[in-house]
TrEMBL record:
All copies of domain Dynein heavy chain ATP-binding dynein motor region, residue ranges: 46-267
Gene3D superfamilies xref list: 1.10.8.1220, 6.10.140.1060, P-loop containing nucleotide triphosphate hydrolases
Record's keyword annotation contains Coiled coil: yes
GO biological process, alphabetically ordered: microtubule-based movement
Keyword terms: ATP-binding, Cell projection, Cilium, Coiled coil, Cytoplasm, Cytoskeleton, Dynein, Microtubule, Motor protein, Nucleotide-binding
Primary localization class, coarse: other
Coiled-coil residues: 201-287
One function term, GO molecular function aspect: dynein light intermediate chain binding
One Pfam family cited in the UniProt record for this chain: AAA_9
Subcellular location: Cell projection, Cilium; Cytoplasm, Cytoskeleton
Name of the protein described by the UniProt record: Dynein heavy chain, putative
InterPro entries: AAA_9 (IPR035706), DHC (IPR026983), P-loop_NTPase (IPR027417)
Length: 422
């Protein structure tokens, strides 16, 4: 109801505030309130991630909200991540895709409603087409015993299997209150941790394809085994619930329960072995993480350029292609640590030269300074107080010591010296 449009830090802040209010009324709560832990299904989340959902908490929360919301979702998706996830999620369900700019997009929506197919409306602008209103409000009524919905001037059959998704590439759309109450607005703007995981996967897939393929296979196997185990547990509970009389007298039920127990133990052993193997693979993959970490930092640096000039827009796909190009062009090395160091240095250089080709001359120095300070901050080589002083100057009196050389050292200069040395 409230989280959808908000960023990750703001959501966390709200949860902490709500938790404090509940404790103030002496209402028992978890030590740390967590939407994913409370309402998420680990097996379902794993399946979403196999379909391309980023692994960061913000994206997982969005997916949970999307599946539980009472209104159709409108996804703020500048980088196209949510769009790709929806496409993969319904790739075997005959997903109907149309663009808001198409003159006849409502025909596609109507067809999906009639047959009960999922429908994805892309490139929504900063307002919603009035023709969508009955679909968004779900104004369903019965004609006889058949559900119908009025679209335009005609009433069409409404199949309850119909699902509707909308995505916009606008990073900060301004929808009217009338529009917002008819949809579930979800902020899928990419996070640094989500991008870092994605870049790590892309780099390892290019560098060590065998390793990444094995990682993906193990993830799929774990998801399938976890789902099988969950179904088995649900089946056992159903059988116990439906059993009549004394359970101990029902040999067929006891045999079924015993077989299920043995199968459950076997699946748990398979999962344990798979996760041990996955842990070993992750140790090797994580050796490339410094490169992915630098890559995420650089992407968010270049994203800030739109504040300098709105014309500076760089897509995520362009950036990923640059990462993969760097893997091909970087000098090889005998050990992984040296290879990762070479990768990071070459990619940083390649990124800088490619971006500078797109900048006006007057903006190159600004970008260079921002990039340099961001890297130094990442490495822990930049003193935060000194950096803030460089940007803002002294924000108060530095001290009360007497000026030792008032004949040539001005009052302001002496105050600045005291401030920076404090």
């Amino acid at each position: 109801a409230y989280f959808g449009p908000l960023t990750g830090p703001y959501r966390r802040s709200l949860l902490d505030t709500w938790s404090g209010i509940l404790r103030g009324f002496e209402i028992k709560t978890s030590e740390q309130m967590d939407l994913v832990a409370t309402t998420g299904d680990p097996v379902q989340i794993q399946e979403w991630q196999l379909c391309g959902l980023p692994k960061d908490p913000l994206s997982t929360e969005n997916a949970i909200i999307l599946t539980n919301a009472r209104t159709w979702p409108l996804l703020i998706d500048p980088q196209g991540q949510a769009n790709a996830w929806i496409r993969n999620l319904h790739k075997n369900d005959n997903l109907q895709v149309c663009k808001a700019s198409d003159e006849k997009f409502m025909k596609v929506v109507e067809g999906a409603i009639r047959i009960g197919l999922p429908c994805l409306l892309e490139n929504v602008g900063d307002s919603l087409d009035p023709a969508l209103e009955p679909v968004l409000l779900r104004n369903v009524f019965l004609i006889g015993s058949t559900p119908h919905i009025r679209v335009g001037d005609s009433a069409i059959p409404y199949d309850k299997r119909f699902k509707f998704y909308m995505t916009t590439k606008l990073p900060n759309p301004s929808y009217t209150p009338e529009n917002i109450v008819t949809v579930s607005l979800l902020n899928f703007f990419i996070t640094r941790s989500g991008l870092e995981d994605q870049l790590l996967g892309k780099t390892v897939e290019k560098e060590r394809n065998d390793l990444e393929q094995e990682k993906q296979k193990l993830t799929r196997d774990c998801a399938e085994k976890s789902l099988e185990l969950k179904k088995m547990q649900e089946n056992i509970l159903r059988m116990l619930e439906e059993a009549e009389g004394d359970i101990l007298d029902q040999e067929e039920l006891i045999d079924t329960l015993e077989r299920s127990k043995l199968k459950s133990t076997e699946i748990k052993d398979d999962l344990r072995r798979a996760r041990e193997t996955e842990k070993t693979i992750d140790e090797t993959r994580n050796k490339y993480r410094p490169h992915a970490y630098r890559g995420a930092l650089l992407f968010f640096c270049v994203s800030e350029l739109s504040m300098v000039d709105p014309m500076y827009q760089f897509s995520l796909q362009w950036f990923i292609n640059l990462v993969l190009f760097a893997v091909d062009k970087t000098e090889q090395a005998e050990d992984i640590d040296t290879r990762v160091k070479n990768l990071t240095e070459y990619f940083t250089y390649s990124f800088y030269t490619n971006v500078c080709r797109s900048l006006f001359e007057r903006h190159k120095l600004t970008f260079s300074f921002f990039l340099c300070t961001s890297i130094l901050q990442q490495e822990g080589s930049l003193n935060g107080d000194e950096y803030r002083y460089l940007l803002t100057g002294p924000t108060g009196r530095g001290g009360n010591a007497a000026n030792p050389a008032p004949e040539w050292l001005t009052k302001n200069s002496w105050n600045e010296i005291q401030f920076i040395s404090a």
